Inverse folding.
């Protein structure tokens, strides 16, 4: 009789255990989806970052992120990569910090708000000065050879309503104004090897020498749109946009298409300086968007620039709006970090 009771008790324990496991499985399945279902690939990891991280930059050793403070101070944080440890931090109020650039040689971090640029010392994040640009800032790029800051601006006090201001970040002086009167001259990219700055407009792409400001290339292209973004390496320009699923390599002299790859609606580009690779953040092709939550999964792929073929696509995803803002791919040493404005996590490759 005692044996029968023990058997019934054991059976009840097994049933309860199976029921508990089933309940856990249901809770997991019905909970919020924050990543891809597949297990992370080797070399792919996640770190925690502040929500509303808009700008990203690197001095080659650390990742710097600027957080937009809608109802409080904005933050500029430095993280170790790949660990994701917060190394140092500073804040500013009001804190509408949407863009970030780094000057490793001079140990400077530039954080742009709506009307100027806050300058920090990168090694300890101490506040140095404020550069009054005097116009609404749409994009910013630092060219290391000349040591100049190129600021895409728009506003009624700018000739032609659009322009790129060339700033001396040491003195705060405005050196020149280029691309005056351009249509949406707010998409910038830097060719560090050549010391040049690309200005992307609506239907037009120009490349300027960072020191002399001479025009090195001036082409028209239907691929250049107001929401396009670029990477440039010598004679080749890589362009993608939020309304197209194609990433294209074009000749910087003629504007002719050299190669292209259909990959999904892209949101950020980064060109690896060591190795012929182009990193692309894009909407995942295998998963649809959630109409109620208005979110889509975004992943990162690595392309071989010689033939534009996809070499690798990450299994992890970040969620954001169908038309995303402030997605960044940042090279930190040998790692690449993908950050998105509405995500409290970043992907490290």
């Amino acid at each position: 009789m005692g044996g029968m009771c023990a058997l019934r008790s054991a059976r009840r324990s097994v049933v309860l255990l199976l029921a508990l496991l089933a309940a856990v499985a249901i809770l997991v399945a019905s909970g919020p989806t924050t990543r891809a279902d597949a297990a992370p690939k080797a070399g792919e990891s996640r770190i925690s970052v502040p929500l509303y991280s808009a700008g990203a930059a690197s001095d080659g050793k650390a990742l710097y992120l600027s957080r937009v403070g809608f109802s409080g101070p904005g933050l500029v944080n430095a993280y170790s990569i790949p660990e994701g440890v917060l190394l140092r931090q500073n804040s500013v109020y009001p804190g509408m910090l949407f863009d970030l650039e780094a000057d490793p040689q001079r140990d400077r971090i530039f954080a742009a708000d709506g009307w100027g640029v806050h300058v920090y010392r990168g090694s300890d994040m101490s506040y140095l000065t404020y550069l009054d640009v005097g116009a609404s800032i749409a994009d910013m790029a630092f060219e290391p050879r000349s040591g100049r800051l190129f600021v895409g601006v728009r506003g009624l006090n700018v000739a032609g309503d659009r322009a790129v201001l060339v700033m001396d970040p040491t003195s705060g002086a405005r050196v020149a104004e280029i691309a005056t009167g351009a249509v949406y001259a707010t998409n910038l990219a830097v060719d560090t090897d050549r010391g040049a700055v690309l200005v992307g407009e609506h239907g037009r792409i120009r490349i300027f020498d960072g020191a002399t400001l001479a025009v090195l290339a001036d082409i028209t292209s239907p691929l250049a749109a107001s929401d396009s973004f670029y990477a440039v390496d010598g004679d080749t320009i890589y362009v993608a946009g939020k309304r197209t699923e194609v990433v294209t390599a074009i000749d910087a002299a003629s504007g002719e298409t050299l190669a292209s790859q259909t990959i999904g609606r892209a949101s950020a580009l980064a060109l690896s300086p060591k190795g012929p690779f182009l990193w692309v953040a894009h909407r995942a092709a295998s998963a649809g968007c959630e109409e109620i939550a208005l979110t889509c999964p975004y992943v990162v792929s690595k392309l071989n620039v010689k033939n534009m073929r996809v070499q690798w696509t990450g299994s992890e995803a970040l969620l954001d709006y169908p038309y995303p803002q402030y997605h960044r791919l940042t090279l930190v040493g040998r790692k690449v970090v993908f950050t998105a404005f509405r995500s409290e996590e970043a992907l490290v490759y």
The radius of gyration is 23 Å.
